[in-house]
Design a protein that fits this description.
Blueprint (H helix, E strand, L loop, with lengths): L1 H34 L3 H9 L2 H8 L9 H16 L1
Length: 83
């Protein structure tokens, strides 16, 4: 019984990691294109904003939001930080 649970847990964790990576890829690509900036600059912005930690931690299930919604949130957070 434990091995079945353990195996299912590993599959669930792997799937969650893959979904998070796909979300990250879409978010970074979309944000870079929308703001006409490089992927490197976008990643710098992303990793220095609170949003990256919220997604990583799964706070309030934020990782299930659409990447375009998250890009808007990142834009707002970035604009506020630059003021």
């Amino acid at each position: 019984m434990w091995l079945i649970y353990s195996s299912n847990f590993k599959v669930a964790v792997q799937k969650s990691l893959e979904e998070t990576q796909t979300l990250f890829d879409r978010l970074i690509s979309y944000f870079a294109e929308k703001n006409s900036i490089s992927l490197e600059k976008t990643m710098e912005i992303y990793y220095t904003r609170r949003l990256s930690n919220l997604i990583y931690d799964g706070a309030n299930d934020i990782q299930y939001l659409d990447y375009k919604v998250l890009a808007e949130y990142l834009q707002q957070e970035n604009t506020e930080r630059l003021k």
